[in-house]
Amino acid sequence: MIAHLFSGALRQISRFKLQSALAIIGVTIGVANIILLISITDLGRRQATGLIDEFGANLLIITPFLDVSKGPLGGHSSLLSQHIPDRARVAVESVPEIESVSGALLMPSHAAHGEVSCYTTMQGVSPSFNIMRGYEIENGRWLTDTDIDQKARVAVLGDTVVRKLYSEGGEVLGTTVEIKDEEFLVIGTMEFKGRVGFEDVDNRIMLPLSTVQEIYGFNGVHGMFARYREGVAEAAAIAAVEAQLESLLVEGEQLDETFSVFTIKEARKMMGEALSLFRTVLWGISSIALIVAGLGIMNVMLIRVMQRRSEIGIRLAVGATPRGIALHFIAESAVQALAGALLGTGLGIAGVHIYCRYAEWSPYVSPWTIVISVLFGLVTGIVFGWYPAIKAAREDPVEVLRQV
Q1: Phi, psi for 151 (deg, rounded to 5)
Q2: Contact, 205 vs 177, CB < 8 A?
Q3: What is the distance of C-alpha 235 from the center of its chain?
Q4: Among 74, 52, 77, which residue's Cα sits nearest to residue 267?
Q5: Taking CA 46 as the corner, what is the angle to CA 45 and CA 48, rounded to the nearest 5 degrees?
Q6: pLDDT digits (tens, 9 = 90+) for 226-246
């Protein structure tokens, strides 16, 4: 029975090639869209959580207040518009439970070397930042306390910046790059890190924090990392830091509305929740493409019913049952949807590999994403093929044959 329905569906699809091709293309695009968007989101989550895990243990993250109930940006349109004053960073450094503190100040800007320039991010950091953040130096050296004290014009370049500014090769260390009309000596280059979502974290230039604050006239940082000492309980470290920050508040300010202090585990959880929400939204958006494809299948099948009315009438007249007619049309719709789903799977996987080549990630597509996408495409075909099938089954053979 199934083999008969399948072979019959293939005959009709080959008979109405253009109509079938249009229906199949719609499902192909819908399924490819789901696989591509969901897989890239999953890869971004794996990449982001992997980079967060590199922070290691005994680390606290201190930022301006983030209301995580309002989404991943804490209700702020731009995190770069928020900052922590320098006095707060100095205060946290004096907490006995804290071993080291590193502030981070990010400023977008252009950098140039010779005739070549690129748009990048200047990141002012403390000497301990590379250890806390898991950055490794590929060549040269990292920033030192002397660089901070002297507000030195020295720079450590990310891998992307090196490839952009030194595309013709040659020595990098000892050369200079121009930033904000000032010359900076290149003292080191960083190892490749990769992308987080759509952000290239290698497209950054690391500068002494004091230098960035001076040239941008910015007395503060966008965030801090504080590593607490071995043997100190996590709760005790958080309580000590919060008590110190609370002592800086002016009348009317509240700690939980001014600063946010959280651990790496909490940061990982927040990142996971934000990306899971994003993934759900993408599922919804991608589903719209399949619904549109389903409407296309319904339209094609309704046209096919009209084109085959005489055939339907003859089959009903010689003993075919309405149920059998309906099953044949549903089978045609399902086969078209299945063909589109399989083609969409191949197209989606190819798209993921192309994106990963651009992002320099290891490509991966979850088997569950493939299975769910194919089933979703198949169900779409069956559901939207149901009405045309019922319409075909309800044709009156006497009336149809009278009009032949």
Answers
A1: 50, 50
A2: yes
A3: 32
A4: 52
A5: 65
A6: 888 888 888 899 899 989 888
